[in-house]
Amino acid sequence: MSLTPEDLQTTREEYAAGFRDLVLTKSERLTPYVRRGELLLAQLQQVAAPEELMTMPALRPHLLAAAGFSEKAAKNVRLSEEQQAALLQEFIEKTLLPAGSRFREEVVYRYLLMQGDAFGGSMRNLIGARAKRRLAEYVMAAADLAGHRVAVQLAGRKNFLPYDPQAMTAHEVRALAWTAPDGSPRLLAYDRKAPVVGQRGNNLDVLLLRSTPAALAAALHDPERYLACGELKGGIDPAGADEHWKTARAALDRVAERLPQVPTFFMGAAIEPSMAAELAARLAAGTLSRTANLGRPQQVATLANWLVQL
Fold first, then answer.
1. Could you give the CA distance from residue 32 to residue 276 in angstroms, rounded to a whole number?
2. How many CB atoms lie under 10 A from the CB of residue 155?
3. Count of CB atoms within 10 A of residue 290's CB?
4. Where in the sequence is the domain holding 75, given as residue range(s)?
5. How many CB atoms lie within 10 A of CB 78?
6. Domain finish residue from 121, 147, 173
7. Torsions phi, psi for 87 (to 5 deg)
8. What CATH code is carried by the domain that includes residue 114?
9. DSSP string, 23-63
10. For residue 250, which of 239, 263, 266, 234 has the smallest C-alpha distance?
11. Which residues lie closer than 8 Å to 18 by C-beta, 6 or more apart?
């Protein structure tokens, strides 16, 4: 496969299109957070003084969030009623009472700030999920054209089901399964630990294995079952592109060291000039088997065809 740095580098127009799509998605997904803040402020209008908040159990989870105790922390750290009350009392004394008559706004602003942290995490997950879905759609199309029937496993579900576009849009893709022309099984799995690569730093974005879904656990421990290993970075921000490539490069280098016979590939949405040059050089040297810019359909299609033919 021969690609030049210019073939791979993300253009200004592609960055602009990616950010436009990201902004529209963020705007749509931010609406529920804004509505929560508006409703919280409306409820707080009925409160005459900060001390009254101690007697309002329905608002306590939101007040604790405003105090800095996030929903994620609440799921992992079980505070007793006494501990919650102590935390809320301290929040009232140190933050809300000094705010005077603006204590209601102080609660809402801090609550929305904490919600923003959660929103940032959900957006990162969304970006990763969309990149997985994009690759999965091309792989399924390539498999379909080759006469293979593909089953899909979605996040939160154990079973593999026939392709359903609406389900794939609503849920993250976890794996694809099909049968090769010679009758051997194929399994494309996302975000799996590869024990044969080592005990630490062995998580890989994409794995293609000669395995059925039921035999996945055993296949991950068998070097002979590995057909390809790849890294997939869907973020469109150029500021983080080089850092994402460093992480991906380290993972691919570990694969090359432990499994030199296994082809490796990289796919990214934000590919900067120096990164494009290194990717092209690795392709030319044979230390990287395939690469593609996620914003270039022909490159993604070529890589997907290659995966299906392995």
1. 39
2. 14
3. 20
4. 29-121
5. 7
6. 121
7. -65, -45
8. 1.10.238.90
9. HHHHHHHHHHHHHHHHHHHHHHTT-SSGGGGGG-GGGHHHH
10. 266
11. 10, 236, 269, 270, 295
CA 270 to chain centre: 15
Beta-bridge mates of residue 153:
175
Query: How does pLDDT run across 189-224, given as a tens digit for each residue?
Result: 999 999 999 877 689 999 999 999 999 999 999 999
pLDDT digits (tens, 9 = 90+) for 46-77: 999 999 999 998 888 889 888 888 776 666 66
Residues recorded for the chain: 310
Residue 257 CA: distances (Å) to CA of 72, 197, 247, 260? 37, 8, 16, 6
Task: Quickly tell me which residue has 């469109």 as its tokens.
Answer: 236
Q: Match 């900060």 to its residue by tokens.
A: 50
- CA triplet 109, 112, 115: central angle to 5 degrees? 155
Cα separation of 125 and 104, whole Å? 32
230 plus 299 within the same structural domain: yes
